[in-house]
Design goal:
The complex is a heterodimer of chains A (about 550) and B (about 290). Chain A contains 19 helices and four strands. With about 550 residues, chain A is an all-alpha fold. Chain A has one domain. Chain B is α+β, with helices and mostly antiparallel strands. In chain B, helix 5 crosses helix 6. The chains are: A mainly alpha (about 550), B alpha+beta (about 290). Chains A and B meet through helix 1, helix 3, helix 5, helix 6 and strand 2 of A and helix 1, strand 2, helix 3, helix 4 and strand 8 of B.
């Protein structure tokens, strides 16, 4: 009972906060004046903030920024040793540095290393921290361009990438980081730049405690969709997540921006009816995942679970199994990928639900920005199918969704499933891919499919028994992350450009209403059916085979 | 003046933006937060919630669990014991992490115990330490996973032709004498049983074992500072005996270091073992050599 009230509280807080935050984001991100500090920043970087960009120019700026980010991180990680605050950790080997650079730039944050023995404070703050802000903001940028494509008429202008980036970081993320960071520190998260220090324990043994800027890191990790940990144990580590209070706040932070951005969308298109419709779709999908995950975790089907009398392996006492399940569903339903428990030790079906949450395309509520554009793609598919069913030209917000538009939507929808299944197949087929499985039988396959689902979908959570720290997986994952992040963005921006040049159509009695109960059912169904068709075979070989045999 | 192509000009701008962001949100933001964390009210937790031992020196952190074992790894009986840990050799704060084994990890392999056997062994050990019944479903009396490798004449079904107790290496006596009429044998070391069908045997242990779940499973971080109130309860008689005090006074101390659910619904009730044991040392004599 307490478990369901806990979940209800989290959902109520997120829904409650999404209104003011979503409205604030709409005011701050769409039009309006530049702040004085921002103008100075644009001058410093040689940017004309008032120059609108076509979709191609917007894409070039986005990709140039991402490429430079990867390069900067790569240099920082490989040269870490002699730099200040390295804590004595040497630079990473190039394969790992490349993987980590791509991982944090693509907002994935899959880590093939243990934080406490690999990254010093400088790498965490200046490297991971900068990209936690930036990579999340890049997702918002792509989504803003798509929204403008839907709103604007007869134009090629989609806004300015640099302005969208800077405003998202400084007007939205930074204030949120400061406030929630201070709250988390007050509740026990550590925030210092100390090195490791050894103490004599209560019983007379020795223990080496590690300092770190966790308080400034946690908010970024959670609200930006990043999800990587300073410590190997991520949000299971007591210094990252010390109590049931911080656990609740961390879950809220993961869900907050993606949910609020739906409201921002409603404001920008001038129809809150639309944003409530999308929120209903997200709410149903999240509710289904949470219900399925909670049932799978509390029904003691596994052998070890039955021997133990509960699903407590890999969970912290202070969160309990429900607190870990809610965290897990929130981390995979959003594209965050943080973890407060071992997802590898979740029940077979519980782990399967986490996978399914990612396979849904990260739309419940998905990543920062990427959640909304993923959701809009599902909406377009629903509009198209619905339009065909009633025999009219499919339209959405008075824009025709014709052949040219659907081409981009379908290409978008194919990228993730194709990449996930292809990468998993390659890894399973080769001995150097298979040897990384940490468990035997179907569970090993689950680990591997989970790994590539997480990498392609920019999630970053893991069934951590899987050893990704091999040259083979480092490099295959780099490919998976780059394809999974940027190819969809290309189609999103191309679609935005295509929509923006359209003249507005006329709403007739035959036009499919893209709101209301019917449409919610249609859009939810479209998202679910697509995911099931794509992934049911893979799921049945992994978690279903293990959990239902 | 030559004009750069569009993509090159944007790349130059991108490099500048990355640099500026690194300075502002990559360095200034965390450094200012670190400075702000020095104010009273934040300082204690920002520094890692350190606790002071009886001798006045830092004895660790109330948030980071510790081992209460002797040099050989045996429990020190005057202390409450923490949960099992997969961080290094146990509560190593430089190596946080979980065991990451699934619910069907039931067959031991050379050099790697299955999760089931780990659970069974821990349950048996805790039972012996606290003088209670340590039996669990799917566990042998000897504290390994009760798992048979079955060979059928029809592959995965049909008549049983051979039965091996997979986690009991010869010359151990199998936990079950026969399975569907076939004599169960011990596992020959080095033999490959991967072609057999794995069948865990429930046994007749109670469905709700005496030893609580958190006492036989490791945490996600390996640094869990807490145990469940049930596990603290189980340990109270032993600690009282070894400390030469009444069980009631130990119960009172447990209560003091028990945290209920936040708002009555968030998380789970916990007992902080580090703080509880520190309080024990402050309150009672610690005959450490009596371990």
């Amino acid at each position: 009972m307490a478990a369901w009230i806990q979940a209800t509280i989290v959902i109520a807080v997120v829904v409650g906060l999404h209104v003011p935050l979503g409205d604030y984001m709409a005011r701050m991100l769409d039009g309006g004046r530049h702040w004085r500090g921002e103008k100075a920043l644009y001058r410093l970087c040689g940017i004309n903030p008032d120059k609108e960009q076509t979709w191609r120019h917007y894409l070039v700026a986005l990709l140039a920024f991402s490429a430079m980010s990867i390069a900067a991180l790569f240099v920082l990680f490989t040269l870490q040793g002699p730099l200040p605050w390295s804590l004595g950790h040497a630079g990473m080997p190039w394969q790992l540095a490349l993987h980590t650079a791509v991982s944090f730039t693509t907002n994935t944050s899959w880590q093939n290393y243990a934080g406490e023995s690999t990254t010093g404070h400088l790498a965490v703050m200046a490297g991971l921290g900068t990209q936690a802000f930036a990579s999340g903001a890049v997702g918002i940028c792509a989504a803003l361009a798509l929204i403008r494509g839907l709103v604007r008429r007869s134009t090629t202008d989609l806004g300015n990438f640099w302005v969208d980036l800077i405003r998202t970081i400084f007007r939205v993320m930074l204030p949120l980081a400061v406030v929630s960071g201070l709250v988390l520190i007050a509740l026990g998260v550590e925030q210092n730049l100390g090195a490791a220090h050894t103490v004599t324990t209560v019983a007379g043994g020795h223990q080496t405690l590690i300092g770190g800027p966790a308080g400034s890191w946690e908010p970024l990790k959670l609200f930006s969709g990043d999800g990587g940990g300073i410590f190997n144990a991520n949000s299971a580590h007591p210094y990252e997540n010390p109590s049931a209070w911080t656990n609740t706040i961390e879950i809220v932070l993961m869900l907050l921006i993606p949910t609020a951005f739906i409201r921002t969308y409603g404001r920008m298109i001038g129809s809150l009816k639309q944003s409530w419709t999308l929120l209903a779709v997200v709410g149903i999908l999240f509710g289904l995942l949470l219900a399925a995950g909670s049932l799978a975790q509390s029904a003691h089907t596994g052998t070890v679970t039955a021997a133990v009398g509960g699903q407590t392996e890999g969970t912290e006492t202070r969160f309990g199994v429900p607190g870990s399940t809610l965290f897990g569903i929130s981390a995979t339903g959003s594209a965050d990928g943080a973890a407060n428990a071992s997802y590898d030790s979740f029940s077979s079906l519980g782990g399967g639900v986490l996978m399914a949450a990612m396979m849904l395309g990260e739309i419940a509520p998905g990543g920062t920005g990427s959640g909304l554009y993923g959701l809009l793609m599902a909406v377009m598919i629903a509009v198209f199918i619905g339009g065909l069913m009633i025999g009219r030209t499919p339209e959405y917000l008075r824009k025709r969704i014709g052949f040219a538009e659907m081409r981009y939507v379908v290409l978008y929808a194919l990228v993730a499933p194709t990449a996930i299944l292809a990468c998993s197949a390659i890894a399973v087929a080769l001995p150097q891919g298979r040897s990384s499985m940490g468990n035997a039988g179907p569970h090993g396959l689950s680990e591997l499919i989970y790994a590539y689902t997480s990498n392609v979908n920019s999630n970053g959570s893991a069934m951590a028994g899987f050893n990704g720290a091999t040259d083979f997986h480092n490099l295959l994952m780099v490919a998976a992350m780059l394809i999974g992040r940027y190819v969809p963005i290309v189609f999103v921006l191309a679609l935005a450009g295509r929509l923006a040049i359209q003249q507005p159509g006329v709403v007739t009695v035959g036009t499919l209403r893209a709101h209301g109960v019917n449409f919610v059912v249609l859009a939810t169904g479209a998202a679910l059916v697509l995911a099931l068709l794509n992934f049911l075979p893979a799921l049945s070989l992994g978690p279903l085979a293990e959990g239902l045999y | 003046m030559t004009r750069l192509p569009h993509w090159a000009a944007q790349s130059v701008a991108a490099a500048r933006v990355v640099l500026v962001l690194t300075l502002l949100v990559g360095l200034a933001y965390p450094l200012l937060m670190t400075a702000a964390a020095h104010v009273p009210g934040l300082r204690h937790s920002a520094q890692g919630s350190l606790v002071t031992g009886a001798d006045g020196r830092t004895a660790g952190s109330s948030l980071i669990g510790q081992s209460f074992t002797d040099a050989k790894g045996n429990p020190i009986k005057t202390y409450f014991q923490s949960r099992p840990s997969n961080a290094g050799t146990g509560y190593d704060a430089t190596a946080s992490g979980a065991g990451n084994q699934g619910a069907e990890s039931v067959v031991d392999t050379p050099g790697k115990q299955s999760l089931l056997t780990q659970v069974c062994a821990r349950s048996k050990a805790v039972g012996e330490l606290e003088h209670v019944d340590g039996s669990r479903p799917y566990c042998t009396a000897g504290g390994v996973g009760a798992v048979l490798g079955i060979t059928y004449d029809g592959g995965t079904s049909g008549r049983v032709t051979n039965a091996v107790s997979l986690n009991q290496a010869c010359p151990a006596k199998p936990f079950l004498s026969s399975y569907q009429g076939v004599t169960v044998t011990c596992a020959k070391p080095g033999a490959d049983y991967s072609a057999t069908v794995t069948v865990p045997i429930r046994g007749n242990a109670p469905a709700h074992p005496v030893v609580p779940a958190d006492a036989v499973t490791a945490s996600g971080s390996g640094l869990d500072p807490d145990i469940s109130p049930a596990y603290a309860e189980l340990q109270a008689p032993r600690v009282a005996r070894k400390r030469g005090t009444s069980e009631a006074s130990i119960q009172k101390l447990i209560k003091k270091y028990t945290t209920g659910r936040a708002l009555d619904v968030l998380g789970e009730p916990t007992v902080n073992v580090v703080e509880l044991n520190l309080a024990l040392d402050r309150t009672y004599q610690n005959p450490k050599q009596g371990a």
